[in-house]
Amino acid sequence: xxxxxxxxxxxxxADLVEKELRAIKPNEALLxxxxxxxxxxxxxxxxxxxxxxxxxxxGHEGIGIVKEIGTDVSSLQVGDRVSVAxxxxxxxxCEYCVSGNETFCREVKNAGYSVDGGMAEEAxxxxxxxxxxxxxxxxxxxxSITCAGVTTYKAIKVSGVKPxxxxxxxxxGGLGNLAIQYAKNVFGAKVIAVDIINQDKLNLAxxxxxx
Length: 211
Hints:
It holds the Pfam family ADH_N. It is an enzyme of class 1 (oxidoreductase). This is Alcohol dehydrogenase. Keywords: Metal-binding, Oxidoreductase, Zinc. The strands form four sheets. A four-stranded antiparallel sheet has the order 5-4-3-8. A two-stranded antiparallel sheet has the order 1-2. A two-stranded antiparallel sheet has the order 6-7. By secondary structure, it is an alpha+beta fold. The mean pLDDT is 94. Strand 9, helix 3 (174-186) and strand 10 form a beta-alpha-beta unit. The longest helix has 21 residues, at 139-159. The chain folds into two domains: 2-143, Alpha-Beta Complex (Quinone Oxidoreductase, Chain A, domain 1), CATH 3.90.180; 151-210, NAD(P)-binding Rossmann-like Domain (Rossmann fold). The protein contains four helices and ten strands; from the N terminus they run E-E-E-H-E-E-E-E-E-H-E-H-E-H. 24% of the residues lie in helices and 24% in strands.
């Protein structure tokens, strides 16, 4: 398959290569990829800012169709449309994993960094962490939810905001724009957006009546 991988001497760019994917494990699924976005974290990985990850397939903003499932998988079936997100797998039994804070797991694996990600024709996901994506949702729009979307959603969720509460969102850029939408349209909050640099982003939020 074709895949975008970190160069042998990381310099901020990726090489498009032919790469053979490993066999899936019993708890995993194999995907035919539809789309994969580029996160700024991908640029850091490609530049070697987090260590030399040469040969690793980049990408954690992916959407794909399940083409094969492992022998222990019951949550997915062939044909399901699912995400390839930054969180690939946790240990499942540490204090963080059992309390819903698995992103802090000390044995965490991340797609496009410590394991191969979604910038390829095929990708592997752990079935229990693959989120199903509605068939009618554009993969380009869905891809941002797998990273910036879940980041901002979780932040608003743990804030405990209730319908009718006021919530201030600092920063109206890519993540901030999604946070504004979640706060207003999902949590029913009244939103104040603050940004000292991106006036154009604030104007966009006003235009879309997000504030």
